[in-house]
Write a structure and sequence with these properties.
The chain is α+β, with helices and mostly antiparallel strands. It has one domain (about 1-205): Jelly Rolls (Sandwich). It is built from 6 helices and 11 strands. The protein has helices spanning about 15-25, 30-35, 55-60, 75, 80-85, 185-200; strands at about 1-5, 40-45, 70, 90-100, 105-110, 120-125, 135-140, 155-160, 165-170, 175-185, 205. An 8-stranded antiparallel β-sheet has the order 3-2-4-10-6-8-1-11. Strands 5-9-7 form a 3-stranded antiparallel β-sheet, with no helix packed on it. It starts with a strand and ends with a strand. Fe (ii) ion binds near residues 108, 110, 162 and 167.
C-alpha cells in the first residue's frame, strides 16, 4: 500500500514573512489545554461560525453548519492557499489549518475522517523552505525506524496515510510551517490523483 507520495498539483507559496507574521498573530491559544495537542495551529477554514478564531473549542466544535467559514482576511492574504484547498479531491471541505511543531510529536495515528480509505488520505503542503530538513516521519510501528519522506521543492504538496500509519515530527529549530487540509474525499477523484502522482513521482513514493 502507498503510504506517502508527492502530489502533482502546482501551488504558489505565500511570502514567508507574511506567513509567519500571520501565524504568530493568530495561532490558537488554548489548543494544549483543550485538545492536548502540543504543536501550534492557526485555523484558516472551519465549518463552524467561529467568533474567536484563537479559540480551539470553537474552531474544532462538532460542526453542524453546512457552510464554510474563513478566518478574518485569509481570503485576501492567502488567496493561493484557499484556492488550493478548493482544488483538492474533496466532496466536502472540513477545514484547513497552518501547523508549526514546537516540540517533538511522537508517533501516532489520526482517528478521524475517511477512516475507510487505505493509502494516503491526508493532503498537506510544506510552506517554508525546509525541504532538506528532516522533521516529518512515518514508521511501520510505534517503535520502528523513522522514515523521513522527501518533500519536493517544486511540488511541496504531499499526501500520506495518516489514519493507518504511524507518523510524527521531530522538532526543528526554526519555524517550519505546513498547511494541513481536511475533508471528506471524493474517492474516485482522489484515487486518480494518487495514481497519477505516484507514477510521476515514483522515486519518492513510500510503500509499506
Ligand atoms: Fe497526526
Amino acid at each position: 500500500m502507498i503510504v506517502y507520495t508527492p502530489i502533482d498539483i502546482s501551488i504558489n507559496i505565500p511570502d514567508g514573512d507574511v506567513l509567519k507574521e500571520y501565524f504568530f498573530n493568530n495561532y490558537m491559544t488554548n489548543l494544549k489545554e483543550t485538545f492536548g495537542y502540543t504543536s501550534l495551529l492557526c485555523a484558516l477554514i472551519s465549518r463552524n461560525s467561529v467568533t474567536d478564531w484563537r479559540d480551539a473549542t470553537q474552531v474544532f466544535a462538532d460542526h453542524t453548519d453546512s457552510d464554510l467559514f474563513y478566518a478574518p482576511n485569509v481570503k485576501e492574504i492567502f488567496p493561493e492557499l484557499i484556492e488550493f484547498v478548493h482544488t483538492l479531491p474533496y466532496k466536502e471541505i472540513i477545514g484547513a489549518v497552518l501547523n508549526l511543531h514546537t516540540e517533538y510529536l511522537p508517533p501516532h495515528q489520526d482517528e478521524f475522517i475517511n477512516l475507510n480509505v487505505d493509502g494516503p488520505e491526508r493532503y498537506n503542503v510544506l510552506l517554508t523552505p525546509h525541504y532538506e530538513q528532516e522533521s516529518f516521519f512515518i514508521c511501520k510501528d510505534k517503535n520502528s525506524e523513522k522514515i523521513y519522506p522527501k518533500i519536493l521543492k517544486e511540488y511541496p504538496v504531499y499526501a500520506f496515510s495518516n489514519n493507518k500509519v504511524f507518523h510524527g515530527a521531530d522538532k526543528v529549530l526554526n519555524e517550519r510551517i505546513i498547511l494541513i487540509c481536511a475533508g471528506i474525499l471524493d474517492e474516485e477523484k482522489h484515487d486518480k490523483l494518487i495514481k497519477a502522482s505516484s507514477e510521476k513521482f515514483k522515486d519518492y513514493v513510500i510503500r509499506f
